[in-house]
Fold this sequence. Notes:
alpha+beta; 22% helix; globular; 2,3-Dihydroxybiphenyl 1,2-Dioxygenase, domain 1
Amino acid sequence: MAILGIQYFSIAVNDIDAAVERYVRAFGLKKRTEVQDTRWGFKNCMVGTDEGNLIEVIAPSQPDSALARFMKMREGPAYPGGEGIYLVGMRVEDTAAQISMAAGQGLKVTTEPDSPTSAWIHPATNGNVMLEFNQAQPPA
């Protein structure tokens, strides 16, 4: 089993349109997807380079979503509006093996039937950073 690399970072923001514009104008990144609602109660938009996505900009679209709750809990002088890094997405060789390893160390792991090759490590058990494991697809 192995972590193959970082896939992207999710950055939590309150104003997704302004944040996407900032990443485009200030850093020369490209908007790679349109802003869209997700089943998890947040809007997202991927920004990156011609080679791929680097940052998923996310903003709560439902006040009771996990993202909204996390941002509210974290809000303070160090994180105005609760904004900042929310999730680190990683490509892994074998999601099941990574789940077993993380759970064996006492980390809370979440899986979903709709995403069978993905898993999430709860931030409360991992230094307030959520990790996402996505199993690498074999070359076509």
